Amino acid sequence: MELAEGPVHLRPIRLRDQRFWREVNRRNRDWLRRWEATVPPTLPGQSPVRRPTYRQMVRHLRTEASAGRMLPFVIEYEGQLVGQLTVAGITWGSMRSGHIGYWVDESVAGRGVMPTAVALVVDHCFRVAGLHRIEVCIRPENGPSRRVVEKLGFREEGLRPRYLHIDGAWRDHLVYAMTVEEVPEGLVTRWRSQRRLQSPRSPHPNAE
User: What is the rounded CA–CA span in Å between residue 62 and residue 111?
Assistant: First the structure.
């Protein structure tokens, strides 16, 4: 499926995105490294696990998506690939939940790209896929990422100590969550309303 709101467009990741995906990652290496998940050695003294190639990553995402455990997207802004968003850890049955992870090109940070992308995906998860709860887990030091979910009205639920292996070590994460009952109007609708309220009013044409 593809999701869109204004200049923000989400679609499935493709093998042919490799050149553009690599270029965005290369330009943003320093910007992203602090927040990227890493895979620790299985046992002490072993070498760190190597990152998968782009093709291996895409094949893994497709396999998980086919199994109903993941929804992987790339984010485009004004027609250019600028990031990635994945709903992972999808659990069905009596839980019906998943968690969102994302990154975005520093050059478009602050333009509302990521809040819009998250809102689009949450609405899809709640209204189309049938999930009940969405989590986003963020390092306490990651202020920009925290502001994304806080703008959208996610609840902060607490701290998970040493929750994920990030940038070479086990890191604490804050848990933010939302359930379908909390956004009966839809998260995109809420985000649109909030942006309209925050936009500075245009001056009267006769104002000095």
Answer: 29
Tell the residue number behind the tokens 């998506």, with chain if given: 65
pLDDT for the residue 207: 29
Distance CA(189)–CA(182), nearest Å, equals 13
User: What is the tens place of the pLDDT at every residue in 107-146?
Assistant: 999 999 999 999 999 999 999 999 999 999 999 999 999 9
194, two tokens = 């909030």
One-character DSSP codes across 119-140: HHHHHHIIIII---EEEEEE-T
Q: What is the mean pLDDT of residues 90-106?
A: 97
For the chain, what percentages of helix, strand and coil (3-state, to nearest 5) are there? Answer: 35, 30, 35
Rg of the Cα atoms in the chain: 18
Pick among 3.30.565.10, 3.30.750.24, 3.30.40.10, 3.40.630.30: CATH of 3-198: 3.40.630.30
Output the CA angle 106-116-131, nearest 5 degrees: 120
Beta strand segments in the chain, E = 3-5, 8-11, 71-77, 80-91, 97-104, 133-138, 155-166, 169-179
Instruction: Return the structure tokens found at 79.
Output: 């027609």
Q: Under a CB-based contact definition with an 8 Å cutoff, are residues 75 and 84 in contact?
A: yes
Residue 87 to residue 72: CA distance in whole angstroms:
6
